[in-house]
Design brief:
single chain; 35% helix; globular
């Protein structure tokens, strides 16, 4: 089985100074263009099933990349982005004022962070792995599957597939918006093929690559 794990295209939340986990923010204008170009990756792929999270930005991304197939999408709650609890929708400056120590953990040691009234990364990984395993179980072994999800979900899945402890999730770079990662499931095991593939995007519309934090992170992350 081949699984194409896709991070949603750029949302308005990706370019705002606020925490957007379960906030149902739409794609930005640039994100819509990214999603359309993602269609060139899938142009020669025959997909048996298409899964998205329940959040609009993954559904929009899939709809732009795979037009005409929206009615076939399977919306899976366990693919949703992290629930940031009381941080949701708040500016980072406000979060630092109210929960400085905990938010600093999110920045530096994210596996130890616990958003108040929200999820931690162990919660996210548990449900994300369940979603992945359920998808594998409900499809034939020769299937090609597309899964449209979110940054934190993808990070925890990559850690799981690479057999990394969650404390190393900080060393996994945030994948580019609308990037594709190939997961190969064979003989009861997951393996990574290519990952963070965003060759379909021209440089000037990439989100992570053109951000100051993204440039720094790509230089310091191990994975």
């Amino acid at each position: 089985m081949i699984i194409y794990l896709v991070r949603h295209a750029e949302s308005t939340g990706n370019i705002s100074p606020s925490f957007n986990g379960r906030e149902d923010v739409p794609l930005s204008e640039n994100g819509m263009r990214q999603a359309e170009l993602l269609g060139t990756f899938f142009k020669d792929k025959k997909l048996n099933k298409i899964y998205t999270s329940m959040l609009g930005r993954t559904i929009q991304t899939a709809d732009c990349a795979l037009p005409g197939l929206k009615d076939t999408f399977i919306n899976e709650e366990n693919l949703n982005e992290i629930n940031g609890g009381d941080w949701e929708g708040r500016d980072y400056e406000d979060i630092f004022k109210l929960w400085g120590d905990e938010f600093q953990k999110w920045r530096e040691l994210p596996h130890l962070a616990q958003p108040p009234n929200g999820e931690n990364l162990y919660d996210v990984q548990k449900r994300a792995v369940k979603a992945l395993n359920d998808i594998v179980l409900e499809n034939p072994s020769d299937s090609s599957i597309a899964i449209f999800s979110h940054g934190a979900v993808i990070k925890t899945l990559i850690a799981y597939i690479r057999n990394l402890p969650l404390e190393e999730v900080k060393d996994i770079a945030w994948y580019e918006n609308s990037s594709v990662t190939e997961i190969i499931y064979e003989d009861g095991k997951y393996n990574l093929g290519f990952y963070d593939n965003h060759d379909h995007l021209p440089d000037h519309i990439k989100t992570v690559a053109n951000s100051d934090w993204g440039k720094t992170e790509k230089q310091t992350c191990r994975y």
